[in-house]
Amino acid sequence: MTLPSSQFPDLRNRGVLVTGGGSGIGAALVEAFARQGARVAFVDIAEEPSRALCERLAAETGRVPHFIPADLRDVEAARNAAEAAAAALGSVHVLVNNAARDDRQTLEAVTEQSWDEGLAVNLRHYFFMSQAIAPHMRRQGGGSIINFSSIAFMLNMPEIPTYATAKAGIIGLTKSLAGKLGPDNIRVNAVLPGMIVTERQRRLWLDDEAIARMQERQCLKRMLIADDLVGPCLFLASDSSAAMTAQTMIIDGGVF
Q: All domains of the chain, ordered by start, with CATH?
């Protein structure tokens, strides 16, 4: 990955938990925090890429992230994963709620089951992970929660009704949690990525034509990749953003 030029000394030895950290944006964040010297745990349902990431980072950095396999659609599993991370790290100062899945479905194809599944995958665990980690942050005098939303809900995309609803809901959740947890010096902010071209996006949804169309809408005429989310996330996790909470940060190359 391309490391950000900035270093954040206050992140060294801080406990960081990333959901969906085994691949894509999540893996870039796990690596970035590890290279900042943080103690990192991550949760993912996919074991093979997650273990491969741990092995690579151990070889390259000497730091081994703590991988917690869990299906975050299961609320009890999410709670257990949060407690496992807190136990492994000793404390959690930063929670990055990143895990998501942008399934496509037409309006007519949405069922009660697929609707509930979409919200479970993309929204529900953000709340329950935050609920579980907040007491650990409170006991240590504060922390930072970073929720990953998306600009997708602002693009009027017809094939993602559940995903768009969840990503819009994350903004409301961020505002509410910030109001509740602010008195405990726990900051809560949201990051809204634009079209981030990951291996999964390439495999499932994006071709060169789709990428070119989005670049035409962007002020920055280049492809955005997972590494573009690293700097903003490190900033929100660090003391550099100590007075920033209840905010949304759009990283989309200038679409909005």
A: 12-194+227-251 (3.40.50.720)
